[in-house]
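To whoever is on call:

I kicked off a structure prediction for a single chain this morning and the downstream step that reads the tokens threw a length-mismatch warning. I double-checked the sequence; it's 290 residues and nothing unusual in it as far as I can see. Pasting both halves so you can look.
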Amino acid sequence: MSDVLAGIDPRDLSVPALVWAADEAVRRGTRLRLVSAVPPAHDRFPYAAAAPRSSLRIRAESALANAEDLVRELYDGLWTATELVDGAPATVLRDRTRGAALAVVGSRGPGRAAEVFHEGSVAVPLAARADCPVVVIRAPEHASVHPPLIVAGVDGSRDCRAAVAFAVAEASLRGARLMTVWVWPSPLLPHAAGTEGLEERRRLLAESVAGCAERYPDVDVEQAVVHGHPVEALTRVSHGALAVVVGRRGSGGYTGMRLGSTAHGLLHHAACPVITVPLPETGGTDGASS
């Protein structure tokens, strides 16, 4: 079976991300693969400059051992593997996403743009380039909401269909309901938002989620068309969600172009974990990404 991949930061172990990954491995009945990377000495990562490389390797070994001990203590019988690799963390993790079920990383300082976008960040480049879905734990999941909720951003593109397919499968694994949200930007003139446009978007939303009920009859799927900015609207609903799932563009272009503006914004603003889902390998992309 495909591994659940967890990125282990030697500077600061993200326990929420580790627990999220371990929970997911247990649900899927698969191995949890813990990976930490030590960047080359010539790379200009802030933490590489702050400590000798040998010291960072010792910290990475310790972080991996602590992470493995913790998950073994919390999840008796969970199959784990650890790997310490030389290389840039984002590149090391990306190279290991081929064939993985999903990858999970933490994001420190979720309110600061510098943390999300600086050159040493793993979250943005991994979410933009990985071959599997990527979970970025920038805020806790809202597990106290009942029934639990997973949100999927929808815009009618092939990108979002891949996201919906992942989201409904994840909702089934977690016994959660799924809310699919199409965000319709508010028009400059109020009368421009006519009923015909609303009905058309409802129709397109229904097409995007078609087949979910047949494949996963245990999942209650809600469809909502709302006015507003996509990042702001999805951030609002993220306050009661286990995760927000969005599609990702194809493999070409710059990192931000691959990721899409909505996914980019959610990595900075969402109030729960954000999951970015790439297109299947069999085709390119069309339309704008969520």
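Update from on-call: the warning came from a stale cache, not from the record. Cleared it. Sanity check on the structure: The CA atoms of residues 58 and 175 lie 40 Å apart.
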